[in-house]
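User: I'm curious what two different proteins look like when written out as structure tokens. Can you demonstrate?

Assistant: Sure. I'll show them one after the other, since each token string lines up with its own sequence. Here's the first protein:
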Amino acid sequence: MLVLLAEIYKELDYIDKRILLLLDKLLIRYEYVPLSVIEGSINVPPRELALRLGRLSEMKLIKRSLTSRTGYRLTFLGLDCLALDDLVRDGVIAYLGSSIGMGKESEVYIAKSSKEALLAVKFYRIGKASFQKVSRVRQYLTNERSWLIRSKLAAEREYSVLSELPRYTENVPRAFGWSRHAVVMSFINGVELYRCRELRKPTEVLYGIFNALRAAFIHLGIVHSDLSEYNVVVSIVDEVPYIIDWPQYVYRDNPLHLEYLKRDVLYVIKFFKRRYGVSIDVGKALRFVKGEVNEVIG
């Protein structure tokens, strides 16, 4: 965005945030919250409320309905500000910097903790452009009509994984906090696997990926189910791989979980064979990930 999210957030006062909170609270009930409902919930003079709604609309934090019945809804930018408010108040982050990456369904900002540790804040922005692909692998979203609610669900699911899985493997980021559609996690100074034309030790990188899949399967009972070179980040200094983008995980009680697991393993093996010339037996790799054997390489 041309204007830093942090700068927009600083312009909001208590009543502005109350308006945003109200629209967030009523996401489930209304597509556009009627003006009469807002007037009955926000205790300010009508003229002041109108000015505030107009200002928030100009800032693109809310959007006014185009029908004859006046109403307002929250935008992703408005939801960003609410999540940021929670994360700052709870002491999860102390500083939010600029955007460092944007995908089809999320945007990542760099941040710092109160102790100056670098963090990444991932804001989910699931929308029409990504939903056709997303709905195929993220079945938990298909019953929700609101893009904002879908994004909240994705963030909640990713946080649930990244707050637990790092206990068993180093090959995923560690989550430090979560609010609405935003997840705060460890910052990885790395690049996506698909951008890595060469690796010094590709076999070790592949083993790290399998290690994360194994830990998820054994300890959390889940399968990533959408693994590719686009959701593996490799650290620049030591080439440690990190699997990201976990919201579409499925549990082992899903009748298709083994099919998804095999797809994940086979896909990454094919990629490493094609890109780096590493050959691994698929069957042995699957047995390793499922915890049936303790070695997969060598």
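Here's a second, unrelated protein for contrast:
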Amino acid sequence: MPTPPPSRVLLAFDGSRQELRDRAAALAPIVRQHFEVASTHEDLDQAIDEKELGPDGAEWVVAMGGDGTMLRTARAMGRNQAPIVGVNLGRLGFLAGLNPERLDKALGEIAAGKFRIVRHVMLDCTLVAADGAETSRLALNEAAVLAGEPFRMIDAQLYVDGDLAATYSCDGFLVGTPVGSTAHNLAIGGPILRKDIDAVVLSSINPHTLTVRPVVDSPDRTYEIVVADPNPGTRLLVDGKVVGPLRPGDRVRVERSPAVFQMVEVAGQTYYRTLRNKLGWGSRPRAPKETP
């Protein structure tokens, strides 16, 4: 059964940045022409509670900012994920795909039911200390273990469903989602995965070998990363945010989350068009202009 359009939405943006506050305020009347704005959420480091987003609050979220805003909004929603419309007020706008000049038309299409919701894998990432204490975070992009200071390589052991898969001598290791495949994973030479497929990518960072390649596997497995002899600066990061240090005996566990990121798309937003226009995929390299 198709998802009906919302009647009430929540506006999310980083209120600590005056420029974003001003631009969001300028765009808010356009949103109100199509939907009731039930509330605004300006502190993206604070959770969005059920009063804001739930039966008595908003049904969808309109996030205004860049891709960082989208990640932070997804984190703020936590397990209570709702369909999200991303308005690009940043630079790249890979996730926040709507440009402000298209907002009025796009919201009109959504109000008329002309939209699709694309569901994306999210990950539960847990730092399990040697004493059994656990610290968990929700990931839309990736969980990454980085070697850190003094920047010696680490030996990262990858376990899949409890079995040792491989040991990597590297600067780090990440488990990424299809959405995250165009983020840190892309920067280290990993594969691009279409955002709506069910998969994860396993990529080592600067492995000291000629034979290691990234692996694409199912999100329905349990992945664990163990660093027996971490550096003093070895850390777990989830979507670019530090979760904590890794000590001997710790392990990182990554599993599919029951939470699902729900991206709203309208006509004209296609995956390969986004790759081409936002990341220059398939474009011929151009010589930079010389500075006089």
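A detail about the second structure: The mean pLDDT is 93.
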